[in-house]
Every structure is written in structure tokens, then in C-alpha cells.
Specification:
2 copies of one chain form a homodimer. Chain A is an alpha+beta fold. Chain A is elongated, with a radius of gyration of 22 Å. The first copy, chain A, is built from 8 helices and 8 strands; from the N terminus they run αααββαβαββααβαββ. In chain A, strand 7 and strand 8 form a beta hairpin. The longest helix of chain A has 14 residues. The structure holds a DNA duplex.
Chain lengths: 237, 237
DNA sequence: AAGTGGTCTAGACCACAAC
DNA sequence: TTGTGGTCTAGACCACTTT
């Protein structure tokens, strides 16, 4: 029960109450939790208090809402913090930020020795290139260069390339991810990149390269390069 | 100006208004923006509307609040999503989640050939080991093994090891980060890890290894291994 | 039509920091 | 003491989904 005499805000107490019900499986995954009205009445608090408590749990990934329907349990355990290792789209979504991806280029390409090394491939094979610009609030936040093996044919045919590629790989492609390698290196941007990312003159960028290995294949099926403005060194702790 | 006849919620319109003032440097970095009361009066909206708009911008990292003082501009440009590539603490904080780190072990250690390879060092030198458990809401979310070169003596002496190591490295240590390498591999947990992370029986974990290179040194000064419960395959996209 | 969450207002009291 | 953001209430109207 919530207690007004405690020095802890009501919405935090209520949040803990709800969380406990989820942890103890009184409310199970994908089942609906009480409506805002019901929570107001059960705990004798105002609607703002209920909404504050609920919104924290939504933010932390425990519950989700469906407009016009209700609020539901998403998960019993937290998945804190490692989302960005998997998906930029997801990590933005977790912060309530809508991202938009624009396909700039899509091609089957020829591979030379240099690219072969980049891709960590030992022999020449089919290679598909996808270039996307990633936007948040109409501001470009990254240039993304993707290189796929023939797996791309399926992706291109069946999925929407403006959404999260990680989602497609993890959820829909039905593959086992064996290994993800990643290298981040800061450097000066090229003129073209300055233009695409709307960069000020002296600003550095980051090269983020990623290789994904699946299905026991010794070579990666997917090579990704992000070009990102580097404000990384002055973020507000 | 905000407009009630538009189909866009007032708080989103107000958010855009504030953001524009920041982007166009009408309100500059670290300067105070109008108080909630002033914003209510300027835009003829209620306090909840103002607080909603402001809280989004806080979440996105544009502004920050000081209790009892006011609200201030943090940055002009977005830095969405990439900070967490370096700092777990940051990525949690961005979602309004407080993390707690507990130092389990701290030692100067002997290096054998196996470890030397792991660390990507070519010759033996001083090596300091730090093991921490990382908690959120009293739930352990990761086991962290850190290996430092002699740089650690300064860190250990001058800083609080229960805070963000990334913050210390980036902000306080005054080094240039040249390169960050990272490998993620899923595997079955050891019994000890099951215990420390409170794992259910069939759950996989992720090994996340990270090497950080600084100051043009060809060898990393810092090797990190995270052991993380893996909910990757059921992300709520 | 009924029920849900989404948006919004007006007002209140509080804890905190600065003067 | 004053002003700030933090918490909380009661009430209103809306858009959305299901019946």
C-alpha cells in the first residue's frame, strides 16, 4: 500500500507496487494491468500520480500501452542499458525518440581486394550495398553504409528498409547470431560527410564499424559502417 | 507561437518552440531558460503542458534542471544514442534510471600468456584488476571485469570507483581515445555467474569485451569484460 | 455506446537553493 | 523570505478501439 506519511513521493511508491506485482507474476506477461481509473481508486491517488508511475515503468521497458485499449505487462526482468549494442532504432525508441531512416543508395556491387579486407571475407561473392541516412527530428544523426552477402535478397524483397535492420535480423530472419565485432575510431569528416550531417567546421566524427557473424559461418554476413557526429566527448553526466 | 487549432498537441508545439530558440542560440548553452511560470504566461498554457514539453527536452539531452534554481540549456545539437556505446551509466541515466556499482575485488595481478593475449599486450607490465557488480533497482544487471595498465594507480587514488569509469576516462583523465574495439559473443553462464546475476536456468548470457586505446599507444590501456544476461532475442521492438 | 489512454487546465502545497 | 522546480488533486474534453 502507498503511504502519504512516508517521505517517498506517491508516484514512486505506486511504481514499486506495480513493479512488485509484475515481478511476483501477479500480473503476467502480455496480460492487461488495471486501468488508470482502477489504479486511482485502488490506491486513492490522482490520475497524474498514476500516469507518472506508469510512464516510468513504460520507460524502463516493463510495461507498454495500447491507445484506446489499456496497459500491458511487457517483461518481468529489466534489459537495461545494452540496447544500443544491438540497435540504434531501439535505443532511441527506449528514450521516446522517433527515428527516421532514408534509403539513399541500394546496389549490387563489385568487390575489390580493399573491400574484401574490410568485409573480412576470404573470397569474392555476391555483395549488396545499402546506404541510409538516419534522422531524428529532421536532423541527420548518422550515415550508414551496409554490406550484405546474398542474404540481402530476402531482406530487400520482403522487408521495409526504412525500419530497423537489427529488428529484421533478430526477429524475422531466424538466424543465430554467433558474434558481433565492433570498432570505433574518431576522425575528421570528409567534405561530403560535413554536408550530409550538417556539421560545423571543427567537429570530429566517429567511424563505427560492425561485423555480424551468424549460423556458424566463419565469415560475417553483414558489415556495417556508421559515420556519426562526435559530441561524445562532452556529454552531460 | 503555439496554436490550439492545429492537430498537434500543445506540449509538442511548445517543445519545438523551445528547441528552436536553443538551435538559433536565442538561448545559449548553460544560460537559464524562462521559468515554468514564465513559459505558462508567454504561451498561455497550463503548467502540465510546460512540464511535458520541458521533460521531453531534458530526456533528449538538450536542457537540464537544477532543483530550486531553474532550467538551463545543455546543448545545441543532439547527441542521440551513441554515448551508451561507451558508458553504461550514461545510457541508464538517459532513461532516468539510477545505477549502483559495487566493487567486489581490486588487485594488482600477475599476467600469464593467456591474459596477455586477451589484453592485446605484447609485453608484460603492471596490471590492475577491478571487478564490479552493476545494479539497477537492486537487481544485478552485469558483472564487470576491468584490467588496467599503470594508469589505474591515478584512477584508484583520485576517483570513486563506484561511479562511471567511462566518465573518468573521458572527462577527467585528459586522454585522447584513439580507438575502441568490442566483441560480443553469446554463451552459457557458469554456475558462479548464474548465482551472481540471479539467472534462471536456461538463460544465455553475453560476453562483451572491450579494448580502449589512448594517446597513440599501439596497445590498449584498458580491457573490459561485461557478463550480461541476454534478453536479446525477445526485445520488444 | 462505452471504455481506454492522451491532452489540458487551475489550483494547491512542498522541498530546495539563494539572498 | 522569495522563487524555483517537484508533487499532487479534481476535473474536463479528446481520439482511439472494441462491442
Amino acid at each position: 500500500m502507498v503511504n502519504r506519511r512516508k517521505p517517498i513521493p506517491l508516484y514512486l511508491q505506486l511504481k514499486e507496487e506495480i513493479l512488485e506485482k509484475i515481478k511476483k507474476e501477479k500480473w503476467t506477461i502480455d496480460s492487461q494491468i488495471p486501468t488508470e481509473k482502477e489504479l486511482m481508486e485502488s490506491y486513492n491517488v490522482g490520475r497524474a500520480t498514476v500516469r507518472e508511475a506508469v510512464s516510468i515503468l513504460v520507460n524502463e521497458g516493463y510495461i507498454y500501452k495500447k491507445k484506446g485499449i489499456g496497459t500491458f505487462v511487457a517483461r518481468k526482468n529489466p534489459t537495461y542499458g545494452f540496447e544500443p549494442l544491438i540497435s540504434l532504432t531501439y535505443s532511441l525508441k527506449a528514450r521516446g525518440i522517433r527515428a527516421y531512416n532514408k534509403v539513399v543508395e541500394k546496389d549490387k556491387i563489385h568487390i575489390d581486394q580493399l573491400l574484401l579486407d574490410k568485409l573480412k571475407w576470404t573470397s569474392t561473392k555476391e555483395c549488396y550495398y545499402l546506404k541510409r541516412l538516419r534522422y531524428v527530428e529532421n536532423t541527420p544523426i548518422a550515415i550508414e553504409h551496409s554490406y550484405f552477402d546474398e542474404t540481402f535478397k530476402k531482406i530487400d524483397k520482403e522487408y521495409d528498409l526504412t525500419t530497423s535492420l537489427a529488428k529484421i535480423i533478430i526477429e524475422d530472419l531466424n538466424v543465430n547470431i554467433d558474434r558481433v565485432e565492433q570498432v570505433i575510431v574518431p576522425r575528421k569528416p570528409k567534405d561530403m560527410e560535413k554536408l550530409e550531417l550538417n556539421l560545423e567546421d571543427d567537429k570530429l566524427i566517429l567511424d563505427l564499424e560492425r561485423w555480424i557473424y551468424i549460423n556458424n559461418n566463419p565469415e560475417p554476413f553483414y558489415y556495417l559502417k556508421f559515420v556519426i557526429p562526435s559530441d561524445i566527448y562532452n556529454y552531460p553526466f
